[in-house]
Amino acid sequence: MDSWLNTLQTDTPQEGFELALKLARMGVKYTQPSDEARATLRDQYADDHAALTAASHVVAVNFQTVAAANNWWR
Amino acid sequence: MDSWLNTLQTDTPQEGFELALKLARMGVKYTQPSDEARATLRDQYADDHAALTAASHVVAVNFQTVAAANNWWR
Amino acid sequence: MDSWLNTLQTDTPQEGFELALKLARMGVKYTQPSDEARATLRDQYADDHAALTAASHVVAVNFQTVAAANNWWR
Amino acid sequence: MDSWLNTLQTDTPQEGFELALKLARMGVKYTQPSDEARATLRDQYADDHAALTAASHVVAVNFQTVAAANNWWR
Amino acid sequence: MDSWLNTLQTDTPQEGFELALKLARMGVKYTQPSDEARATLRDQYADDHAALTAASHVVAVNFQTVAAANNWWR
Amino acid sequence: MDSWLNTLQTDTPQEGFELALKLARMGVKYTQPSDEARATLRDQYADDHAALTAASHVVAVNFQTVAAANNWWR
């Protein structure tokens, strides 16, 4: 896998949240590397509330990590 | 996405809890950006106890982050 | 929503646990504000072990937050 | 509810783990107070691996809290 | 239950990971004490990817606790 | 099991994320040691969005541990 994560530091909380999203998606990509397969799956879960909540849960866990790395942008 | 998260600091724990709710919803919105699609899904899960508990779980995880950011409003 | 969360500080661990329960329920109430709808759902999940375990899980996550806020009542 | 949680301090890690178990069960009991109903549910989930894993998960989350409260019994 | 957990300290991260596994299994054993029943269940979930992922999740939560107890073996 | 985890320290966040992936997979391997059985299961869950999200969740939990061990690569 190419380099995609050099730092957990971000300028703003919002960029940190978006990095958390990226971490959640990369957690999927390492298991299912096919872009086409993931696009198909995304179409399915975008209308499935349990799946969207589960995705938001993973983002929340990663956001804890990123926020701590940034000392909560205090 | 427009700017929506400039700080994790809030004046009160309740505002922090409401920010945690917003983080949970934004975790969904980034995956399903359509307001209409999300409104339809919300109608479904508002009467589904497993879904409501799952939503509350994501809020709880985000509330951990916000509470730490505010030094637990001590 | 009226004011319902002014502090995370409690006198005892048990009061902290009960606050964690309240946080878990408020996480549901913000999504499903109808008292009647929530009462109906509670009747369903009170005899569903997966639902009860899931509810206890959310309480546990919130109890982590409350316990940290109180420096674990040391 | 009577007094059942006066401290998170325990003498040993094992007692701390057992307290985490108690916290997990109390999280259920507050929602389903009937001893009879909970006994019936326990008979069901004792032979359901998903339910047992979910129960162990809640214990693990509570054990994080109890271990931190005891400074990990270092 | 006999004594099985006297310390969270381990010499290496790997031993810590294996302790996290033990904690996950003990979380099950306290609810289902029968060795025979647990062996039957293990045969079922060893070929069920959702169950294996759920088991790995519980190990991960316990590993957080053990790693913190060991100051991350720094 | 042979030695596979000597340290949680990594040079970069990306290597830390990849270690978190390894921890998630080892959590499965200890329960299902057969390489063949795990390969079969992976083929199944690689096209199952709930399973991929669940896998990403476990990685996220382990990444919290690894990131803390590395002081978030600050």
Describe the structure.
The first copy, chain A, is an all-alpha fold. Chain A has one domain. The first copy, chain A, is 66% helix and 0% strand. The first copy, chain A, is built from 3 helices and no strands. Chain A has helices at residues 13-29, 35-45, 49-69. Chains in contact: A-B, A-F, B-C, C-D, D-E, E-F.
Features:
74 residues, homohexamer, mainly alpha
The number of domains of chain A: 1
Oligomer: homohexamer
N-to-C CA distance of chain A:
33 Å
> What is the structural class of chain A?
mainly alpha
**Principal-axes shape call of chain A:** flat
As a percent range, the share of helical residues of chain A equals: 55-70%
Short description, anyone?
6 copies of one chain form a homohexamer. Chain A has 74 residues and is mainly α.
